[in-house]
Amino acid sequence: MKYNLTTRDRLIWPALLFVVIVWVGCVSESDEPILSLYRFEKPSHFPEPTYTFQNNDVNEKGFNLGKMLFFDPSLSRDGSVSCSSCHVQSHAFADTWLHPFSFGVEDREGVRNSPPLFNLAFQTEFFWDGGVTHLDFAPILAIESEIEMDESFENLVHKLNNHTQYPKLFKEAFGVEEITGPYVLHAFSQFMLLMVSADSRYDQFVKGDQNALNQEEIEGLLLFRKHCESCHREPLFTDLSYRNNGVQKTITDLGREAITEVAQDRAKFKVPSLRNIEVTSPYMHNARFEGLLQVLNHYTEGIQEQVNIDPLVFKNGKPTIQLTDPEKEKIIAFLKSLTDDNFINNPIFFNSNE
Amino acid sequence: MKNIKSKLAISIVFLFSSLFFSCQENEDPNSISQGEMIVKFDNYVGNQNMVIDEVGSTNYRYSNANGQEFNLTRFGYYISHVRLEGPNGEVFIDEMNASADAKQIKGYYRVVQGESDTYNIHLKNIPAGQYNKIIFNLGVKEDGIQEGAVGGILDRAAGAWFWNWNSGFINYIIEGHSPASLRDENRLQIHIGGWKNIPSADENPQRFFDNNVEVSLPFDATVMVSETMRPSPHIIMDLLKVIGDTDLAIQNNIHSPAAAVPFVQKLAEAFVVDHTHQ
């Protein structure tokens, strides 16, 4: 049937289109351009994000405000450390290898290795023990910890309200006359939500570029999938669970037990992502290993019987993972293909404070 | 041509009406008349009025069943999810909303001893009718936490009772001093919180404890809510119902969901509707 555009069609369709546009406009009320550097976009091969974007959508002003806060040492009690002191972009926002445990105010040394920051929109629990259950609340713990910034969140917000620039910037970003806690946390989250790392050579490979990995790396990927995948699950390279991989020779840090209050969680820690692992040495919550070969050696022969030792890595009195030296080399070659140079060099995260 | 004009006119009317309706907020059909209720909370320690003392005070006003003296330097609790029920099937559910904007927060209340403006909970938009029961949640549930950063009485920077290491609110807070406590400054801190439950399965024990408590209180009499009648139930809370049997020499430093469970089991009984003003 040939389709004739009648006069009625000419009138009705534009009218209907207009109605739809008006309706959509009322629902989204967005005046931001759809394509922007400062919009969160889910990588096509990633799961749906879990962050509550409906309460705090990312935009350029909020992102830049979060960035200014992230690099501002005046947030700490004595003005000595900022978030960026222990979360360094060139190390995927982990601390440098010079600081196995980061230093807070008055050079107070931490007790766990500073975790890298990326793909946070896809996580539901934060820190090594997972005690923080929403990204918005993560900065409060670092700010208030006596060995980190040692400042009350209440006083931090008070300082921001008396600052020469922040009140104006919060008004521009959130339309508020007074800075309150949730808007500070929303700004932090906006900055951290855009820390998406999904552009390593591995990612290019799984998205179809067969040349993105060389033969050794592909063999390493296959070995990885056989031996490591059950915990370090693609594409986030973590299953977000808590496990004891035997990294403490004697248990001094209770880990997840401090949060769940059951002995069955003693010495368990969150399975970390392996993305950007090449630049986040040293490894494990206690920073025990400097190199990836040490880590693999731990899994193949280092693990000892211990309370709550994970049966996936230790069973029947011995480590479960068996790897030859060439296999270890291949796995390490593959792990280095997880380095996302575009992420660790992305200029939108550069410090632009004076 | 006439036909086209009329179609055009219809299209335009349709277009503008859709413009109008699409941006208009839904309004209640005004046919249902509504009223208000003020719920008063009055905190006691046994038969004594509750008084907050300065931190460091050694004036011990109260004592428990073990004869252990104590005073209070901070006391209060969160209330949310308020519901009213009536003898003829009337139900009122207080609207809930967690938001960064303090003005948009709905349905969360905090009673803080020493701040008299927090003692009265003002319920609005109650359908006119008879009511004889109030039900509320003592604490802040998952819906006040997992929406992320929230403002007003839930803003940590504005003094909200919030755990930074194990995200969640302290539902019911008791702080003071007791000579029975051998901690520095004879400190007494009982922080009751926790909102998550991961029940036990197979050989696994329960992880986390949801220490929110539903409190259900019948009124002493049925009251009438209407546009002109604003009744006021008067609720009395007795702290000795919660810590009256507690050995303050041992239980003086409670800061986690599991440790708070023995107290939680007594919380609901601490509240009673003393009387109602019609």
From TrEMBL, chain A:
Keyword Signal annotated: yes
Chain segments annotated as transmembrane: none
UniProt feature coiled coil, ranges: none
Pfam family, one: CCP_MauG
Keywords linked to the UniProt accession: Heme, Iron, Metal-binding, Oxidoreductase, Periplasm, Peroxidase, Signal
Tree of life domain: Bacteria
Domain Cytochrome c as annotated: residue spans: 215-339
GO molecular function (one): peroxidase activity
Compartment(s) of residence: Periplasm
Identification of the protein by name: Cytochrome-c peroxidase
Source organism of this protein record: Belliella calami
From TrEMBL, chain B:
Keywords, comma-separated and alphabetical: Signal
Organism superkingdom: Bacteria
Signal sequence, start to end: 1-23
InterPro entries to which the protein is assigned, alphabetical: MbnP-like_dom
Keyword Signal recorded: yes
Record carries keyword Isomerase: no
Name of the protein in question: Copper-binding protein MbnP-like domain-containing protein
